[in-house]
Design goal:
This protein is mostly helical and 109 residues long. The protein has 2 domains: 72 residues; 36 residues. Helices cover 76% and strands 0% of the residues. It is built from 5 helices and no strands. Helix 1 crosses helix 2. The longest helix has 32 residues. The mean pLDDT is 81.
């Protein structure tokens, strides 16, 4: 059985919404924990703390989902990313410069 483009699109939208909802839920749990920590029972504090943390597995899934769907940041629109991009470019230049100084024949002797 093959899925139609419409079915795949609907599934894609649901996955995107579920991931977005999970991140928003984590933000909400963190805000509630911060605001009401002194008033909450210890069990609720532990629960909200667990919910407020986006696990590495979740972040990996989200990152992979964005990559698989060619979702990228436009660096010109974000000063922090622009600065980071410049730093990475400089590192790449230095790395290439160092590699050019190495005699590759020496690496295999």
């Amino acid at each position: 059985m093959s899925a139609t483009e419409k079915e795949l699109s609907a599934l894609h939208n649901k996955v995107a919404k579920a991931l977005s909802d999970k991140l928003e839920s984590a933000d909400t749990a963190g805000a509630l924990l911060e605001e009401f920590r002194d008033e909450l029972p210890e069990e609720v504090i532990k629960y909200l703390a667990a919910q407020s943390d986006a696990s590495p597995a979740l972040l990996t899934v989200i990152t992979r989902f964005l990559k698989d769907n060619s979702i990228t940041a436009v660096i010109e629109e974000n000063e922090e990313l622009t600065a980071l991009d410049k730093q990475l470019a400089e590192k790449r230049k230095r790395r290439v410069g160092r590699l050019e100084l190495v005699d590759t024949d020496e690496l295999y002797d």
